[in-house]
């Protein structure tokens, strides 16, 4: 094969060819395009070589060159040169501009050598092509415009116009194509950067390079060019916002995430990897309170937040990428610390005035108080209050300031110290509160007069007491303090029986002990009053007073005195005469005695102590009537002697005796005992006494009647509701109600009976009431006398009622239904077993 011949053989062939040429005349050249079909006629060889066609066969025209044999043959019948095989110019001549195939033809008879040249003409049968169909070009994004990037040239085996003539690049914004022609004529396409690349906009550019030849028709070949834009750290991290805002509760614990900030970086790889940091100028406070997660941008609580110290935190955050050079972005963060009601309101007492006088007027300022709560809003809105029970109130003044003023009367004696509880509550949810206690002390003012333990004191003192003995002790109390409570006792001057009371008694000014300075005689003075005064030493001083009722108690210091039968001259002796004809129960005489004492001490009883004949006479125990027990007989002695003992009921018993000598006479008529005659008889003194008694009785009766009427009217009024009125003295419970009951006391002094009308209860001594009947009871003869020693009548009534021990006496007033027979109320006294009706 031609193309497989070694170079030296080709050279040999050429050498040989020229050798022959020198010997053989003439040369013929044909020109054919490549790639002719087989059998195509190249030229009329016989004619061109001057040969006769018919001779050809005989002369054996033949192609001798090996190469020529392969592609051509000679049609001996027609004398034409025809193509026998495909002729590829590119194969035969490669890129040589002309391609000649030499042929040697030999013809025998005569042997002649002919040389024929066949020029193979190029046809555009090859497209330009690239060795690499896909080319990758990496370009850094920051390369300046104008940079050139050589591309691969396309290959086209065709020559001349049919070979690569130009290059085209697909349409794009960034690149243009230039073709550089080398010295050797090679055309090398180059990409020229027209506009800066941005990886972030378009990281990969796909271009198509087309090589075009100049043939007709035009043929082309393409290559895909992939341009990868290499990243440059040309983008700073960008935050989504300029300023981030967040609220965080001041209660948030360390680790709580507050917010997430985010920055983005358009770069890739390390250039786009972002880390977050606090900006350089961040204060230590912020650094101690907050932390930022470098990788995620989460801002978390680190320290303890406090709305009250810092309600708002502002700081900057930097985001940095990891490129080289490093780029960073910034944003601001505002964190509001939301208030939590975590501060208890505080009560501040600015000034306090204590102690204050107890007579301070209402509205006196005691303290200036303010409230403080560092929380904000409602959490810091404080209201103060004070217990409504205390006599203080709070007056609000300027914001959160209050004055504590008195709101009511103060009394040190009730409360010498007030504990004022002030509570402060804020309006948070839930509200917090605190309490403060203020102690307000009160200063004493002498506003309390000394008060005696009792308004009246009652003292019983036996008569004949020893002077200098303590009668009683009074005491007064003053709730004030110090001098205002220092009490001195004194006796207010008054008269007792025209004598100053201070001559009777003396009081210890320090402790109120009252001493008697006198021995009292009941028969002269039964009762008297002492007005005592207690005075404190306050300024001005106050005083209180009380009355001491001194009752002198009767002692049995008087023996009964016989007043009838009169025997002043003979001592206790009297002579009586009696007829022998006297029957039984004949009244011989009536012994009458008086006792200056009162009560039991004056309760006189009579007893026949001795008699000549005890069977003949008897003495009435109560009346002193001496009567015969039986009829006098002839055998009885004419002279009888009776010793009558008169005893009182005191302790010790005192007694007197009277001796009555009786002369029994015959023929003596029974005397008509007329007591009125008898009483008138003894002396002039007796008549006067009787007159007194009558006057007394009359006045007493009128008084009693008046009192009864008043009582009756009262009772009727009262009983309108209750139906009956009973004033019953039960026990000691109604001691201090004078004038409650009307008391009537009947005293007996021998034959002299008198009535004491007293208010209140009966005297215990007034057992003498039993002898209220006349000694001559059968004749219903009353002799009444007003007691001589009774001083102030009304006063005694009231005092006795209030003071005297209980008695068995009751006074009843019963309203009886009106009937024809009983037309009036009946009033009666009742003592067990005995009833007097009026
Ligand atoms: C923070 O709270 C306030 C009201 O207290 C509100 O107006 C604001 O929108 C809140 N901000 C955020 C970021 O939640
Ligand atoms: C009052 O003082 C006197 C003398 O010091 C004394 O004898 C008396 O017992 C005192 N009285 C009272 C009630 O203490
Ligand atoms: C004390 O006595 C005075 C005058 O004697 C009198 O005016 C006053 O009412 C009395 N006070 C008392 C509490 O009894």
Write the layout of secondary structure elements.
Blueprint: H1 7-23, E1 27-33, E2 41-44, H2 45-49, H3 53-59, E3 62-63, H4 66-71, E4 72-75, E5 80-83, H5 89-93, E6 99-107, E7 112-121, E8 134-140, E9 148-150, E10 164-169, E11 175-181, E12 187-193, E13 204-213, E14 220-230, E15 238-239, E16 243-249, E17 257-260, E18 263-264, E19 274-278, H6 284-289, E20 290-292, E21 298-301, E22 312-321, E23 328-338, E24 346-352, E25 356-357, E26 365-372, E27 382-386, E28 392-396, E29 401-406, E30 417-426, E31 433-443, E32 451-452, E33 456-462, E34 470-473, E35 476-477, E36 487-492, E37 495-496, E38 499-500, E39 505-507, E40 513-516, E41 527-536, E42 543-553, E43 561-564, E44 573-579, E45 587-590, E46 592-594, E47 605-611, E48 617-619, E49 625-628, E50 639-647, E51 655-665, H7 675-680, H8 684-722, E52 725-727, E53 742-749, E54 752-759, H9 793-803, E55 810-814, E56 826-831, E57 834-837
Parallel strand pairs: 1-7, 8-14, 16-23, 25-31, 33-42, 44-51
Antiparallel strand pairs: 2-5, 3-6, 4-5, 6-7, 9-12, 10-13, 11-12, 13-14, 15-18, 17-21, 19-22, 20-21, 22-23, 24-26, 26-29, 27-30, 28-29, 30-31, 32-35, 34-40, 36-41, 37-38, 39-40, 41-42, 43-46, 45-49, 47-50, 48-49, 50-51, 52-55, 53-54, 55-56, 56-57
Bound molecules: 2-acetamido-2-deoxy-beta-D-glucopyranose (3 copies).
Function: Potential calcium-dependent cell-adhesion protein. May be involved in the establishment and maintenance of specific neuronal connections in the brain.
Organism: Mola mola (Ocean sunfish)
GO molecular function: calcium ion binding
């Amino acid at each position: 094969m031609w193309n497989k011949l070694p170079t030296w053989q080709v050279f040999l062939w050429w050498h040989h060819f020229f050798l022959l040429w020198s010997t053989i005349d003439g040369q013929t050249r044909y020109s054919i395009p490549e790639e002719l079909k087989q059998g195509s006629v190249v030229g009329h060889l016989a004619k061109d070589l001057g040969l006769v066609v018919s001779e050809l066969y005989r002369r054996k025209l033949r192609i001798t060159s090996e190469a020529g044999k392969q592609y051509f043959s000679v049609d001996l019948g027609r004398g034409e040169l025809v193509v026998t095989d495909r002729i590829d110019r590119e194969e035969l001549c490669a890129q040589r501009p002309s391609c000649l195939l030499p042929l040697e033809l030999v013809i025998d008879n005569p042997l002649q050598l002919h040389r024929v040249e066949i020029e193979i003409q190029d046809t555009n049968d090859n497209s330009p092509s690239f060795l690499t169909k896909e080319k990758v070009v990496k370009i850094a994004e920051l390369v300046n415009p104008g940079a050139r990037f050589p591309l691969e040239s396309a290959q086209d085996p065709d020559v001349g116009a049919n070979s690569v003539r130009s290059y085209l690049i697909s349409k794009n914004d960034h690149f243009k194509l230039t073709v550089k022609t080398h010295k050797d004529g090679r055309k090398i396409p180059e990409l020229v950067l027209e506009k800066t690349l941005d990886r972030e906009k378009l990281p990969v550019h796909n271009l198509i390079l087309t090589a075009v030849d100049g043939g007709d028709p035009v043929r082309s070949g393409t290559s895909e060019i992939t341009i990868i834009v290499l990243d440059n750290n040309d983008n700073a991290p960008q935050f989504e916002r300029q300023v981030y805002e967040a609220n965080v509760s001041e209660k948030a614990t360390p680790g709580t995430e507050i917010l997430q900030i985010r920055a983005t970086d358009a770069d890739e790889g390390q250039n786009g990897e972002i880390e977050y940091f606090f900006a350089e100028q961040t204060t230590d406070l912020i650094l101690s309170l907050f932390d930022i997660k470098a990788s995620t941008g989460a801002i978390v609580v680190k320290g303890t937040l406090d709305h009250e110290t810092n309600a708002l935190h502002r700081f900057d955050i930097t985001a940095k990428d990891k490129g080289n050079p490093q780029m960073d972005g910034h944003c601001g963060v505002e964190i509001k610390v939301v208030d939590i009601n975590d501060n208890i309101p505080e009560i501040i007492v600015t000034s306090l005035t204590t102690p204050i006088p107890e007579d301070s007027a209402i509205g006196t300022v005691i303290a200036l108080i303010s409230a403080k709560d560092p929380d904000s809003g409602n959490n810091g809105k404080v209201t103060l209050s004070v217990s409504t029970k205390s006599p203080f109130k709070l007056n609000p003044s300027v914001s959160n300031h209050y004055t504590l003023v008195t709101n009511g009367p103060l009394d040190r004696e009730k409360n010498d110290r007030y504990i004022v509880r002030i509570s402060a509550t804020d309006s948070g949810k839930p509200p917090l509160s605190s309490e403060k206690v203020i102690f307000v002390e009160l200063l004493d003012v002498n506003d309390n007069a000394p008060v005696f333990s009792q308004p009246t004191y009652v003292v019983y003192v036996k008569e004949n007491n020893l002077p200098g003995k303590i009668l009683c002790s009074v005491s007064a109390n003053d709730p004030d303090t110090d001098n205002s409570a220092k009490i001195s006792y004194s006796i207010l001057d008054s008269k007792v029986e025209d004598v100053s009371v201070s001559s009777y008694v003396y009081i210890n000014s320090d402790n109120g002990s009252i001493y008697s300075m006198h021995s009292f005689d009941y028969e002269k003075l039964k009762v008297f009053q002492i007005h005592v005064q207690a005075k404190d030493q306050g300024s001005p001083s106050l005083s209180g007073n009380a009355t001491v009722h001194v009752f002198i108690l009767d002692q049995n210091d008087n023996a009964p005195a016989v007043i009838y039968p009169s025997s002043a001259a003979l001592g206790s002796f009297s002579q009586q005469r009696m007829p022998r004809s006297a029957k039984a129960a004949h009244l011989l005489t009536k012994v009458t005695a008086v006792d200056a004492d009162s009560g039991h001490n004056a309760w006189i009883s009579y007893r026949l102590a001795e008699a000549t004949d005890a069977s003949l006479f008897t003495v009435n125990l109560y009346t002193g009537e001496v009567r015969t027990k039986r009829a006098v007989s002839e055998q009885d002695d004419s002279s009888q002697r009776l010793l009558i003992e008169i005893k009182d009921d005191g302790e010790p018993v005192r007694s007197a005796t009277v001796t009555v000598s009786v002369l029994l006479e015959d023929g003596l008529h029974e005397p008509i005992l007329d007591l009125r005659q008898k009483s008138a008889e003894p002396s002039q003194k007796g008549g006067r006494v009787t007159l007194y008694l009558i006057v007394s009785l009359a006045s007493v009766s009128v008084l009693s009647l008046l009192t009864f009427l008043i009582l009756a009217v009262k009772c009727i009024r009262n009983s309108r509701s209750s139906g009956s009125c009973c004033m019953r003295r039960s026990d000691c419970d109604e001691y201090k109600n004078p004038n409650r009951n009307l008391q009537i006391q009947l005293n007996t002094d021998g034959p002299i009976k008198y009535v004491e009308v007293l208010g209140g209860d009966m005297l215990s001594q007034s057992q003498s009431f039993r002898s209220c009947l006349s000694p001559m009871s059968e004749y219903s003869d009353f002799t009444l006398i007003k007691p001589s020693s009774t001083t102030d009548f009304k006063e005694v009534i009231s005092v006795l009622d209030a003071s005297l021990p209980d008695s068995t006496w009751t006074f009843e007033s019963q309203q009886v239904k009106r009937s024809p027979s009983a037309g009036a109320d009946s009033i009666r006294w009742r003592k067990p077993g005995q009833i007097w009706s009026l």
